[in-house]
Specification:
2 copies of one chain form a homodimer. By secondary structure, chain A is α/β, with parallel strands linked by helices. Chain A is 27% helix and 29% strand. The model of chain A has no long low-confidence stretch (mean pLDDT 97). At the A-B interface, helix 3, helix 6 and helix 8 of A face helix 3, helix 6 and helix 8 of B.
Chain lengths: 347, 347
């Protein structure tokens, strides 16, 4: 008899896990709260992915197609887990979707509920939502995904753009001490895309540390050498309105050791990643733990980052912390493997 | 009939992959070139792991025990793949070990051959091997693993220690443009361990960017706030001998915009990670590709980082690029899942 495995979350990690399990003949129930699969990359219309600038469709599109075409995956959209309980070594869940409620028994569970972007409106110094031309990393990603590279205020090409890193990350004032891992590389990628579209536009990146780790470094070199992106070590302390429909970034250049005050046509805030309200909700519902950063807690951060503290419940993707899509997919595979082994043993 | 899967490399990634497959009843052949399992963490006697400073034994010891106690894993030490060829959808390999040569047929293959540390002697400015008190990241890890925190030259506690990041990384002069991902966090961890052992010792870290990405950031805060580690943005350009059996680090403080010349009792070079000679050897033997950095090439860096360009041959761990032990283990799981699916379909 085939195993039954529940996958909660239809982003990159959950999709990959579901497809892998379905390939082994497992009956997978894939539960997604949104009206579509693909997670944040789909929601914010990612068009090109770092580090190789390949079309997001190659990755996200493939995963969605793979899940949609697989009959071993029962797909639930606009759905959630209404209730959940342990049942010996198995789990019983009520899945509620637009078509009603269904009670099912599962041999194991994978949680892949992802992340939320930090809301930059929470930090007033950035004047997000106050000025049309102050947008954030996901707004720009969506705009560029729709082929729009112009200023929100007037639809014209920006003469200059400031990209501000670590918005809502590495910042105790907003409660997020951790680094969000991918914003540096995403921002460098966005700077390159802006320069490719408007070569005359000046693009500045204000950073604390540029964390284009591993091979992402290639993109950093490319931004500086091929596209003349200005990478400035400095913190922006305030954004105010400027003359001629500009916004002024005030701050300090840490290397030049002096204050700056520069009018920009457009400012992009590299908002970090948070566990989102779904993390405590999942922890509560499934009886698993949260970590001190508001993400789901891994059984052992090195030996078993894909396990929760509860036997039979596995974790994958950004629900355990900020990470790149590649890392989320890999974790989806590792969690699927363990969830399958667990199901085999107990079914 | 059980599937047969070959795992090449007995470090964290290979061990985890082998154990997971064996749990599913697969006949695993685990081939390790060294005389022991555990890879570089075992070779250099890692004692505590970042980011939570848990004993390495919790992770590496567990994996070794798991593989050694599993009868579905045929273990080959001091062994290598003498020859390899495709055989329809299967693979035929000759495994050579101290007990002789064996020819076996496999349904799929996982390559997890790991990395080598950059040899700092290749960059003469660091005077590695010229002065006893200039050591590198793996030397210090091994020393601390053996409970030794003192100066190599005289066995006394160091009054001050310099840790120099990006040795052999982010450096085109030595041919490695990429960042090695983990050296920042390992170095911050080592600084904390030094300070815990000798609270009076002054520890400096010279960096370009501190890349304690994600939750590794917690360790960076800890080093600064709890242990008063001095974190200095600056490049060391030369190491020479100094008075009173010291070594002098000369360089420029990028933030203070001035040169420095400081005598240290001990200097630790944070040597990066390289693909090592085993990567081109494996690529050649298995007919898979190398990337431009000298690591094994992933089929798709985002969608399938655990696949080679050849069907049935999968990749895991640092053989595809610098990464943390956690990431290597997760990739071991993801590669195992795919190798199992491939074997199931074709066996």
């Amino acid at each position: 008899m085939a195993e039954n495995i529940l996958v909660i979350g239809g982003g990159p990690a959950g999709l990959h896990a579901a497809i892998e399990l379905a390939e082994l003949g497992v009956n997978v129930s894939l539960v997604e709260r949104d009206t579509f699969f693909g997670g944040n990359p789909k929601k914010f219309k990612y068009k090109y992915l770092f580090p190789d600038l390949q079309p997001a469709e190659n990755v996200i599109g493939e995963l969605i197609k793979g899940a949609e075409s697989n009959n071993n995956i029962k797909k639930y959209l606009s759905a959630n887990i209404e209730s959940f309980k342990e049942d010996g070594k198995k789990f019983s869940a009520v899945i509620k979707s637009s078509t009603g409620s269904e009670t099912k028994t599962f041999d194991s569970v994978i949680v892949a509920t992802g992340f939320e972007h930090f809301d930059p409106a929470k930090d007033s110094k950035y004047s997000y939502q106050l000025f049309d031309d102050v947008i954030d990393i996901k707004d720009l990603e969506r705009m560029m995904g729709e082929g729009n590279f112009t200023r929100p205020s007037n639809g014209k090409p920006p003469k200059n753009v400031a990209i501000i890193l670590c918005v809502g990350s590495r910042d105790r004032h907003v409660g997020n001490q951790y680094c969000s891992r991918v914003c540096c590389t995403v921002s460098v990628k966005q700077a390159i895309e802006l320069k490719e579209h408007f070569p005359e536009t000046e693009v500045y990146i204000f950073y604390m540390d540029i964390r284009t780790y591993g091979f992402y470094e290639d993109l950093y070199w490319k931004a500086m050498e091929e596209h003349d992106v200005q990478i400035v070590k400095g913190r922006v302390a305030e954004i105010t309105s400027g003359p001629d429909n500009t916004v002024i970034c005030k701050g300090e250049d840490t290397l030049l050791r002096g204050p700056f005050e520069i009018p920009f046509d457009m400012v992009v805030l590299a908002s970090g990643m948070e566990g989102g309200p779904q993390s405590p909700e999942m922890a509560d519902k499934l009886g698993i733990e949260l970590d001190e950063h508001g993400f789901l807690k891994q059984a052992n951060v090195t030996l078993s980052p894909f396990k929760s503290n509860k036997d039979g419940i596995f974790l994958a993707g950004a629900c355990t912390g900020p990470k790149a899509i590649a890392d989320a997919i890999v974790e989806g595979g590792a969690a699927a493997m363990d969830a399958y082994i667990y199901a085999k043993k107990n079914s």
